[in-house]
Design brief:
Layout: E1 2-5, H1 11-23, E2 27-32, E3 37-42, E4 59-63, E5 83-85, E6 88-90, E7 96-100, H2 107-120, E8 124-126, H3 144-157, E9 160-164, H4 171-177, E10 180-183, H5 191-197, E11 204-207, H6 214-225, E12 231-235, H7 252-260, E13 265-267, H8 269-273, H9 279-288, E14 293-298, E15 312-313, H10 315-334
Parallel strand pairs: 7-8, 7-14, 8-9, 9-10, 10-11, 11-12, 12-13, 13-14, 14-15
Antiparallel strand pairs: 1-3, 1-4, 2-3, 5-6
Bound molecules: phosphoenolpyruvate (PEP) and manganese (II) ion.
Manganese (II) ion binds near residues 271, 297, 307 and 308.
Length: about 350
């Protein structure tokens, strides 16, 4: 349920409504609307049946939220969420670009990748130190050593770092070295991990599960949001009957998520297609569809990559792609072309 306050409601009115909600055993979250303050109510709303919320001073009206997720819903939070990661905004005017190798393989490999990523104009360096590989015999990542290389690369380049956390025990080290914690597709419904990662104090990027519906994905975000409003969603393709591509990149998820939620959404055309040749067209389309940014795999030598070389861009292809992405984003901004319809 959301309680919409009148524009002229006073701080005392808001405090009183919050007190009444909490006294009934529910949580109250205060949000800034465009004109008005909104108080989100989390918990079993039947506990409020005997309380005439709408009659409290300063209350305009109250509206039930129809979705099973609340904090992530646009009904709860009508304005787009913009997440500030050390001065870089995700969900703002400029697309947030996250690029780098699938896995951190060595200091040299990561630094070479970081220089390429920086030269193309991305703001974030990606690279897995903990790799959730399909086969237990595949390269599993450098773990803490890899995290240290990422932090060194940040020092060298000024890029922010995003890297995946795969276990509850991994949250503290990853939060120490990374600016954003990534929850991978395979862990999207690892609810124990989601609850704990919400407490880490840093923004979290939640990738869509391999076969997750949009509703399941937003409910997964809700687990993190219980403790942390700074959640970024990432569409990375879903499993369908198509086998030519690694996954089917669901670009319609951008429009759906923008309608249903206020959270920023990033598109990953590397995992979404599995083919480096398809990254550029899907990246262009994602920006045109209103995505808040991109995550892409870039490797100094994709043929030698320890993982996902076939969906990694070379320096040349990455720089070419970024040139186009910047032009599309600028054109859309200058022409005021916003594809997102919010009603
Ligand atoms: C990744 O981004 O490194 C990754 C493993 O992606 P996903 O979880 O989407 O498969
Ligand atoms: Mn990968």
């Amino acid at each position: 349920m959301v309680i919409i306050m009148r524009p002229e409601a006073t701080l005392e009115n808001i405090v009183e409504v919050t007190r009444v909600v909490e006294a009934a055993g529910l949580q109250a979250k205060i949000m800034e609307g465009a004109q008005q303050k909104i108080i989100g109510v989390i918990g079993d709303k039947t506990k409020l049946v005997s309380v005439a919320i709408d009659a409290l001073p300063g209350v305009e009206n109250s509206v039930a939220i129809s979705k099973s997720y609340k904090l992530a819903s646009r009904e709860f939070h009508p304005q787009n969420t913009v997440i500030d990661v050390g001065g870089v905004k995700i969900g703002g005017d400029e697309p947030a670009i996250m690029a780098g190798p699938c896995a951190v393989e060595s200091r040299e490999q990561l630094f070479a990748a970081a220089d390429i990523v920086k030269a193309g104009g991305a703001q974030f360096l990606r690279g897995g130190a903990y790799k959730p590989r399909t086969s237990p015999y595949s390269f599993q990542g450098l773990e803490v050593e890899g995290l240290k290389y990422l932090a060194e690369a940040r020092e060298r380049t000024g890029l922010k770092v995003i890297t995946e956390v795969t276990t509850v025990e991994g949250i503290a080290p990853v939060a120490e070295y990374s600016d954003i914690l990534q929850i991978g597709a395979r862990n999207m419904q690892n609810f124990g991990l989601l609850k704990e990662v919400g407490k880490c104090g840093k923004p979290v990027m939640l990738k869509r599960g391999l076969a997750a519906t949009i509703d399941e994905w937003l409910n997964a975000a809700e687990y993190i949001m219980n403790d942390n409003p700074n959640v970024i969603l990432c569409e990375r393709g879903i499993r369908t009957y198509e086998t030519y591509t690694r996954n089917t990149l669901d670009l319609s998820a951008v429009a759906a998520v923008k309608h249903l939620s206020h959270l920023p959404i990033i598109v990953d055309p590397s995992h979404g297609t599995g083919k480096w040749r398809m990254i550029k067209p899907m990246a262009f389309a994602a920006i045109a569809a209103g995505a808040d940014g991109l995550m892409m795999e870039v490797h100094p030598n994709p043929a030698k990559a320890l993982s996902d070389g076939s969906q990694s861009l070379t320096q040349e292809h990455y720089l070419d792609l970024m040139n186009g992405v910047k032009k599309i984003a600028k054109f859309m901004k200058d022409e005021n072309l916003n594809p997102i319809v919010i009603d």
